[in-house]
């Protein structure tokens, strides 16, 4: 089971799972995000990975608000990355919601392995990308499912956890991934062109620069 957003992190994590011999089932959540171009990217990535099944599920978190990704609040631009503050692009409890849905489908399928593309070194202050969070959810999975209490072991894989963005890009290139299929921007233009100034664009640009390769989104 892979959570697939259409970004380069989830694409790489899913590709790593595939390289390890897993048969992939992909879940993409339409959560009311303003950057819906990522949904098109998720479809392209799922096709490239040859997933066994790809579900797009509607869970509209914009009804709650609380994030610049699900409301009209301006997305922060041109800010230094690495601050301790949690930015307005944090969507309350998003990864908990997403992992819970993935866990539900995994239990139905009899799958025991869930992959998520979070990483701890380049995250923009999000609490639900941290190693202690992933470990806690894995423990929850054994307590909150019928199969878990009957002895099944669920594993939450975060294979990019200790990777920098440059590390992720290098690993993806080793796997032959086409990052031109992906979408990262929090505030793209009407045609989906990245703004180049939000946190996600800044991290992506720095990662490609540090990896010493051109971002295919800007080289085509």
Features of this protein?
37% helix; two-stranded parallel ribbon; three-stranded parallel sheet; 220 residues; Rossmann fold
Total strands: the figure is 5
Could you please say which CATH topology applies here? Rossmann fold
Secondary structure class reads mainly alpha
- Major sheet, described briefly? 3 strands, parallel
User: Level of helix content?
Assistant: 25-40%
Mean pLDDT: 93
H/I helix tally: 7
In the CATH scheme, the class would be Alpha Beta
Number of domains: 1
**CA radius of gyration:** 17 Å
Question: Are there runs of 5+ residues with pLDDT below 50, and where?
Answer: none
Q: Any guess at the CATH architecture?
A: 3-Layer(aba) Sandwich
N-C termini distance: 32 Å
CATH superfamily: HUPs
Shape descriptor: globular
> In which order are the strands of the major sheet placed?
1-2-3
Strand content: 5-15%
Helix/strand order, N-terminal first: EHEHEHEHHEHH
